[in-house]
Predict the structure.
Amino acid sequence: MTNDAIKERIERLRAELTQHNYNYYVLAQPSISDVDFDSQLAELAQLENQYPEFADPDSPTQKVGGDITKQFNTVKHQWPMLSLGNTYNEQELRDFDERVRKAVGDEVQYVCELKFDGLSISLTYEQGKLSRGVTRGDGLQGDEVTANVRTIKSIPNKLKPADFPEHFEIRGEVFMHRKAFERLNDERIENEEVPYANPRNFAAGTIKLQDSAEVARRPLDCFLYFLYTENRSKLFKNHWDSLEAVKRWGFHVCEHSSLCNNMEEVLAFIAHWESGRFNLSYDIDGIVIKVNSYGQQEELGFTAKSPRWAIAYKYKAEQAETQLNSISYQVGRTGALTPVANLTPVQLAGTTVKRASLHNANEIVRLDLRQGDTVYVEKGGEIIPKIVGVNLAKRLPEAQAFIYPDKCPICETPLVRKEGEANHYCPNEDGCPPQIVGRIQHFIGRKAMDIDGMGDETIETFYKLGLLTHISDLYSLYDKKDRLQQLDRFGEKSISNMLAGIEKSKEKPFEKVLFGLGIRYVGETVARKLAQYFKQIDALAAASTEEIAAVNDIGIRIAESVTEYFANPGHQEQIKLLQQYGLQFKTEVKEVVLSSDKLVGKTFIISGTFEQFSREELGNLIESNGGKLLSSISGKLNYVVAGENMGPSKLAKAEKLGIPIISDQDVLTMINGQ
Ligand code: IVH
């Protein structure tokens, strides 16, 4: 065969096999027998082996994997991967609909989709080729798992010729069909490997495997449900059309979606799948309802955590009945006491449940729990099951109520409970072991300082040995190297890894350090907001409760907790030490280069959609010329830049306040002059 003939044969085999894969995995309409498929694939593999000059990473032969990923790179999402607000009943859904219609008017269409119970993934395509697959991670950044994603048969590595944009991102859910899960889990049990609790965990465990060939052996599937591109509203007017298009490009889009014109149709869809879901070959845990129009989606925008234009309706979780034997009490890193119910083991949604969280004293009162009660347990979205009620028919007449402890079960310090707070706290911050250990464990955790080479057990051991009592002691471990080397469980290598991990943590940005300090109510998002606003720890420490509460989305309860934290001399001392050790206590201030100062001193809000710009582009243009963007209409606002489909409530408010409503062209004129 001539070189040209070989190339042609290879390309033909690739095209045919890709089409067969698509027919089988995406359309579920096989177009070739397994034997014939395997023989064609073998021929292709043989040719590729013999003529490596024709190798192609997108060849169907590459779906078997082979790449080993030692460590997954963390990458930032171009568009954050948000979660969805949840609703559990009709009323909450009607409230959502009302909020939507109030903002965008009564002409609303919703797309209803199944809520797949897997893990979300973001895929990037450049020039029609899969270039990156990233897990959700914390929503802002995730792990790059491209090698593994490339082995998923229903994900195209190369798209069909079509009018797709040069660069786009598509989001979806990776999952495993129930049958495949059962088969593979049985194999694991036979091989004496730990079985997975459910298909979701199996899929999640698989996508993070280092060996992509092993991933390829485990049949994962993926439904795609959301497209992101620059200027997407130029390509499509709504979500439904985008789904139709991505289907044509070769993506696996679930066929059970529906375009609904009103809430009645949405509710009928939900009712249909409440029982219909058990006939599907995969698990769903609810329905996702999305506003169809892109214009309206942009008008509605986002809260800090989720879009205002979409919501999830969650089906009721599975329940089981079992006996409550006792309650034990755990003390967390902030000193909060958590009651935990000890149950007679019971099977629930594929796992054995022995314990359930009771949150706080109010929960025990609310459920009116008595010793020996028969209770209903439920597994919702949370990993820890909860008690949802008592089977009163089975209650014994002499059953005693539980007496909530008044002393810390660990250090016996009398507990405190502030007015209006649900939790009891042990105030012995510096002497109560689980608080000390928990605080340091939190600090080294993945979401905080992410210290490599050190785990929760190490912290516990070091605490018991008197090597660690404060966060800052981590940074003096280097000076205790000799002592560490005498410890049985730690080899030379693990000690040097650990010390290197500690040293590296000094580079972590201020927001991570702030989160790591473990200030009550200061989670990741709050820490980020505070770090961005105050820029440095001294400014935050000096701020009054009112000043902190003035930051967007920071409530008075959080603000009080922050000022209380900084007023404590022990905490001040810790921060001083950490500063001396060289940790980051300042946010880097980015220099903004202005294109002009034409808009300095002017404030804007952007509403609706525009022909020439995306809202993001228009916002960038305003800011780069010195203008400021505000998030809500108030007396401080100078201009509303209105495009098409501006929400009626915004329009009314702006008119009432007499704020000029201008177009994107007016903004250009302000910048460029006539
Ligand atoms: S849309 C901003 N559609 O549910 C758009 N999500 O609780 C958000 N999910 O993180 C995602 N099925 O992992 C969307 N049809 C569907 C979905 C879906 C499952 C998951 C997804 C998301 C989570 C939100």
Observations:
- The CA atoms of residues 26 and 470 lie 55 Å apart.
